User: Fold this.
Amino acid sequence: MKTNQIAGRCILACMFAYLLIQIYYISYEIMPSMKEGPWRDVVCLFLIQSVFFAVCIFAVFVLLIAERFHRDQTSPFSSLLLVNGEGKIKKEVFLQDQHSFLITGAKKGRQVFVEQIQDPDADRYLYGVCNLVRGRWYLEVLSESRPVGIRRGEENVVYRLKEGIPYQLTASDVIYADTFKIVMRQQKKIWREEDGADPM
Assistant:
């Protein structure tokens, strides 16, 4: 899929470049040397068609860039659920129009919170920060004094995350902080290109 898209865009780019060269050659080389007559009308028509197709291809590229920019600014997850040790949902955080959030905890006790990065509570412990980068969420642990873990998909293993390494999150991942877990809810009807390997 991705290879076909790249090939298609390369073909469009080559056609666009060819049309630009053709428009320049007709406008500055052929048209000035032609006299009035039926052949000049044919050349003018050909020039108009070339300009039209060049504009159409340019519009396609503009739409692709706009779509990619919108996709990179959109969270692939609609929300996250903060679930306590008893399996009860403590809070649902909606991620639309969000680009970052903090996972914090009480300095005394086992409470875990999800906070806005702009206004964190100074009395809480920082587990980690999640940032939206080019349409994908990444979790980075800020300290290893309190472990943070992640379970990938259907695996039965919880991996302990290392400090300072960004880990890409997928819809099937579950984050563990103390006795709490954070579950992602996937956004519906959003298309993503496949990434390479995760840093895990």
Notes: The chain has two helices and eleven strands. Confidence is low (pLDDT under 50) at residues 189-200. The helical segments are 2-30, 38-72. The first helix runs from residue 2 to 30.
